[in-house]
Amino acid sequence: MSRTKITFQCLLAIFMIGAGTMHFMNPNFYMTIMPPYLPFHLGLVYLSGFFEVLLGVLLLVPRFTRLAAWGIFALLIALFPANIYLYQHQELLPASPMVHFLRLPLQAVFLLWAFWHTRPSDLKSSKQQRQGE
After folding, report:
1. Is the pLDDT of residue 128 over 60?
2. How many domains does the chain have?
3. CA 38 to CA 94: how far, in whole Å?
4. What is the pTM of this model?
5. Contact 51/71 with Cβ under 8 angstroms?
6. Burial, 88: exposed, middle or buried (Cβ in 10 Å; 0-12, 13-18, 19+)?
7. Mean pLDDT of 109-132
8. Contact present, 8 and 15 (Cβ < 8 Å)
9. How far apart are CA 125 and CA 29, in angstroms?
């Protein structure tokens, strides 16, 4: 695997672990931006935080990297409604409207970043995986 991909894999893992940890340190922040149609706000905040930490750790375990990357991809999609809700209700977190808007395409960047790690590192590892199936 290239040094660049390893570096970005570690950065994504650190981001996921850090963001997940924040769900436990400051759950009220996350509850504020949850759409009201979702039930059990506190439970969902803790559950999403748990999975962010777990997937971030598993991203660093070579055997689970691709699975964790798919999990992160799915989790980011599941969390996207909260970003849309925040954009629609900017009074929930006072900031520039541009900041709220930029969260939306930033989510796409993270989706692509996670997707990159769902792919085999190189042709050799791709062949090895096909032989192992």
Report:
1. no
2. 1
3. 22
4. 0.85
5. yes
6. exposed
7. 73
8. no
9. 41
Q: Do 33 and 92 touch, CB atoms closer than 8 A?
A: yes
Q: To 10 degrees, what angle do helices 41-59 and 65-88 make?
A: 140
Q: What pLDDT, in 10s, does the model give residues 86-116?
A: 889 988 888 888 888 888 999 999 999 999 9
Domain that holds residue 34: 3-132
- Give the H/E segment covering residue 56: helix 41-59
Q: Are 13 and 56 in contact (CB under 8 A)?
A: yes
Pick the most confident of 17-21, 91-95, 125-129: 17-21
Are 58 and 76 in contact by the 8 Å Cβ rule? The answer is no
Helix or strand run (H / E) with residue 31: helix 27-32
Tokens of 120: 């085999």
Q: Mapping DSSP to helix (H, G, I), strand (E, B) and coil, where does residue 74 land?
A: helix
